[in-house]
């Protein structure tokens, strides 16, 4: 499979990367703003638990969407590695390794969102907990997921910095794309470490992620519409070989 991809036109695989990236962005946006933000009521344990129970199907759809994102992540990693390795193979591989950690962390924390459902079920073993305890544990699961997501984005922030550098140095991608991705990486790192080190300021810092959104959306649309400068990429790839 890898051999076939590497022999495919760089323009084709670039557009496939753009398509996958756009899927990830759209599903991620919908999962956050149309699922979790509609169900989770910040600081309100009872309302959050009731919303999870009354919107179980929506909650499960959100989890399924996140898992689809993780699958797309892996495919996108391979394609971006192929596109960027002519610039610097070791750095392109390093980005893949950091990205794999990010994807593994986020996939693992999807289980936490399922735990929120288990706690609100009707299984006999749950009778060991009082209703208010189960509600509190459900909210704790949701908060744990938020922090797990922040931890995953630490690794993805590094990915964005590395890819930003490679895009900037490539010669077959516009330099501003590299700058935007580097800014996206700094945004993710700033947001995540603020959440961990100074959580009271997390809500204040959160809007900084608009820069990450702009950077990633710009890259996905460029890949989808423009792709790469084929002759320059082939020249760099031949030098690399």
Please describe the topology of this protein:
Elements: H1 2-7, H2 10-39, H3 45-54, H4 56-84, H5 89-119, H6 131-170, H7 175-197, H8 202-205, H9 209-225, H10 230-240
Helix pairs in contact: 2-4, 2-9, 3-6, 4-5, 5-6, 6-7, 7-9
Description:
This protein is mostly helical and 241 residues long. It has one domain. It is built from ten helices and no strands. Helix 5 packs antiparallel against helix 6. The longest helix has 40 residues.
Shape field: elongated
> What is the arithmetic mean of pLDDT?
93
Strand content: under 5%
Distance between the termini: 19 Å
Give a quick set of tags describing it.
241 residues; mainly alpha; 83% helix
Q: Summed up, what is this model?
A:
The protein is mostly helical and 241 residues long. It has helices at residues 2-7, 10-39, 45-54, 56-84, 89-119, 131-170, 175-197, 202-205, 209-225, 230-240. The chain contains 10 helices and no strands.
């Amino acid at each position: 499979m890898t051999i076939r991809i590497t022999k495919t036109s760089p323009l084709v695989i670039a557009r496939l990367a753009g398509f996958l990236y756009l899927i990830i962005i759209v599903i991620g946006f919908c999962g956050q703003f149309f699922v979790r933000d509609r169900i989770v009521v910040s600081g309100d344990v009872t309302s959050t638990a009731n919303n999870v129970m009354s919107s179980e199907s929506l909650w499960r759809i959100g989890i399924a969407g996140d898992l689809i994102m993780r699958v797309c992540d892996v495919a996108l990693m391979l394609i971006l590695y192929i596109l960027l390795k002519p610039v610097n193979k070791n750095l392109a591989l390093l980005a893949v390794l950091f990205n794999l950690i990010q994807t593994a962390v986020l996939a693992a924390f999807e289980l936490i969102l399922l735990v929120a459902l288990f706690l609100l079920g009707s299984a006999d073993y749950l009778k060991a907990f009082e209703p208010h305890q189960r509600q509190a544990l459900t909210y704790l699961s949701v908060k744990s997921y938020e922090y797990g997501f922040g931890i995953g984005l630490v690794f993805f922030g590094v990915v964005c910095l590395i890819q930003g550098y490679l895009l900037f140095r490539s010669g077959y991608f516009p330099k501003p794309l590299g700058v935007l991705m580097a800014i996206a990486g700094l945004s993710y790192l700033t947001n995540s470490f603020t959440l961990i080190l100074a959580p009271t300021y997390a809500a204040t810092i959160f809007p900084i992620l608009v820069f990450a959104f702009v950077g990633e959306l710009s890259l996905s649309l460029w890949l989808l519409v423009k792709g790469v400068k084929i002759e320059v990429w082939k020249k760099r790839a031949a030098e690399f070989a």
